[in-house]
Amino acid sequence: MSATHSHSCGTLQAVGQSEPNPIYQRFVARRIADGVRRALNNLAPAKIGHGSASVPQQVFNRRWKMKPETIPPTPLGVTTDQVKTNPGINNPNLVEPAGPTDPEVCFISVQSADGKPIALLANYSLHYVGGVGPGHISADYFGAFAVKIGQLLGAGPNFVGIMSNGTSGDINNIDFRGGQAKEPPYGRIQIVANDVAQAVAAAVKNVKHADPAPLAVAQKEITLGLRIPTKDEVEKAREVMKTSKLAPRMETMEQVYARETVLLVDFPAQVSAPLQIMKIGDLHVSAIPAEVFVEIGLELKKRHSPTFTVSLANAYHGYLPTPEHHALGGYETWRARSSCLEADASTKILAGLEELFAKLK
To answer: By 3-state DSSP, what share of the chain in percent is helix, strand and coil, each rounded to 5?
Structure first.
């Protein structure tokens, strides 16, 4: 069970200064259960297949190496960052992206016994897109893709289109070198959804759907450490929080991260992280409970093709940079509730997944 990441929806997880509404949390849990019940009530014979397409023009690494001495100190006072996240379009201090992208759109297609589309689950390593109207509630490009793919496949009203978050912790839709025209609200969302849906719809035509397809699953829990602040860091953070004139709301980034430091005091030193792999025919689908950096997904594809990874799955433990990216610094590594896993967390997760891959051979 996984989430998609958006900046245009109600929050279910306390992040930054956004606190979840318990009534909304219960509503969403109930609607998830309703979805499962509806699926069970609609069971029917089906065929399944998988494939992929390439959409390189909509993914950009958002972490950039910059010219010397142009990266400001972090809100936590660190002065050793070597990369800047979201550095600004046409910033004259850009040098090069700090990492790759993954242009592949993987998908699982389900058809009825007579070949009519029932459902399609896609996976693309792109964060959210954004660009909705002020105060709007939107499912972002994930929802737009779900609608568009059904239309392109000529599916009926009961078709279920799904887009899952791939390994997109450091990937967004902004070309920081420039070249993207300014779009009206929802314009960029529709462009991304259309490009991805058209590529998938074309690829589906070449997929062989089969019944039966061998199914298997393996899962385990691993223990990961958290980066908990020291007593001295907490005392300093409390003093910074007192400088806010809008308390309890924080005004500056320094104050926001001071509040995060104080809140992390109540976190445990370790957390349990569920890892999971589902096998459908020769396809492996990995599930990781974090906003996974693209290098991790690419490494899994290199080792175990065909495969793809669903992020934000079965739990939420914030950003998952590699140790190399922790050394580079940048927003995704700044200690906060949304980024507090130990620097070697991705190494431990990959090792855990390798054990599960071995079990499924």
So the answer is: 30, 25, 45
What type of residue is 158?
N
Amino acid at site 149: I
279-323 pLDDT, tens digit per residue, is 999 999 999 999 999 999 999 999 999 999 999 999 999 999 999
pLDDT in tens, 22-34: 999 999 999 999 9
What pLDDT, in 10s, does the model give residues 179-230?
A: 899 999 999 999 999 999 999 999 999 999 999 899 999 999 999 999 999 9
- d(C-alpha 244, C-alpha 252), whole Å: 8
According to the model, what pLDDT value does residue 10 have? 87
What element of type H or E holds 195?
Answer: helix 187-204
The C-alpha atoms of residue 206 and residue 99 are separated, in whole angstroms, by 32
Asked if 182 and 89 touch (Cβ cutoff 8 Å), the reply is: no
Residues whose CB is less than 8 angstroms from the CB of residue 164 and which lie 6 or more positions away in sequence, other chains included:
2, 4, 121, 122, 123, 142, 310, 311
Token pair for 357: 């891959």
Residues 216-255 as b/e (b if ≥16 CB within 10 A, e otherwise) read: eebeeebebbbbbbeeebbebbeebbeebeeeeebeeebb
Give the pTM: 0.96
CB 90 within 8 A of CB 142: no
Task: For residue 188, list its beta bridge partners.
Answer: none
Using DSSP, how many helices (H) and how many strands (E) does the chain show?
8, 15
DSSP 115: S
CA distances from 31 to 7, 138, 235, 313, 358 (A): 20, 17, 42, 18, 36
Alpha carbon of 314 to those of 226, 259, 277: distances in Å?
18, 27, 12
